[in-house]
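Example record for the data management plan.
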Amino acid sequence: MKITNVRPLVMGTPWRNLTFVVVETDEGLTGLGEVRMINNTEALLGYLAEAVPRYVIGKDPFDRELIVDNMRLHDYSRAGEVAMSGISLIEMACWDIVGKALNQPVYRLMGGAVRSKIKAYANGWYTVERTPEEFAKAARRVVDRGYRAAKLDPFGAGFYELDRQERLKSIALVEAVRHEAGPDFDIFVEMHGRFNPATAIQIARDLEPFHPGWLEEPVPPENLKALKKVADAVHTPIATGERIHTRFECRELFELQCCDIVQVDLSHFGGISEARKLAAWAEAYYMLVAPHNVCGPVATAANVHLAACTPNYKILEHFNDFADAWVQGAVDHYPQVVDGYFSLPDRPGLGLSLNEDFVAAHPRENVHFNLYSEDWHKRQAKQ
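Corresponding structural encoding:
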């Protein structure tokens, strides 16, 4: 079997563009990949235009490791977010083709299920005014939808520090969610790398009465010793990793023991196998993995397969019940969350097909997502 063509397709939403690839073979089988490139869609398409003819066309999709290694190594430059995202697209699609060729779900080809269902947490649900009353109502909608966990960034456009009034307002939002959702609901607090260590530690201590399940990216990702300073000073688990793009960048993270949950994004990290390798390495340090997933239907399905076969997998992030839920229409057999869990996939490959007419009906948007603008959390169109 040989890969004969790779077709990128971009579907726009008011705050994210989702890039799909359809990988075609000479035997008629096709595979799908997907990534949400924040603010860099054109760079990704440019990378694919150069890399696919060199490293992908004419290759056997069963030789997935060879394709990935060639794409990562043979350009000589240090692979970053754009290149690793392009690699992820092709790697996912190769797994999809292999699963279809063998008539097996991908997770069964990676060792089989280690759990009977996959716990999910909601994100993208708090697109409301930043008041305790509105956040509580939004949290109630999450609970009523069957979720038992959710994540929020309550900190507005904060950077490095917050004045006292803004800090108290942010803490009040978490308090309102805890009160509405109840004591047995997991609340994960996203910090998006906003704060210096002193501020992150202060906020973490303010949040302790509400028992957050983790604090995510409390400081900017470039300085792991700053992250360790926070981890050593607080009692809440620390999660990080969405802006790490290769497993080699994780060595110091592990050696310093400066986090408890690793959150690499398989769609920016080289694909399903790369994330699985990283999870096995993390397990040697007794760390859990909870991959970042801001994607639409195809990469969400890929994450479900990874979760099914990974022993130290904690929980899967899910946007598509709340932020632009209509994106589910891009595929058949979208993996649904029922009573807070995804079911194990039972269809070959990734288990879905792309509705290209639907994608074409939602063309690429000219949007720029800025986490440091006022009301960014509403995820409304920003031109």
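Summary line stored alongside the record: The chain has a mean pLDDT of 96.
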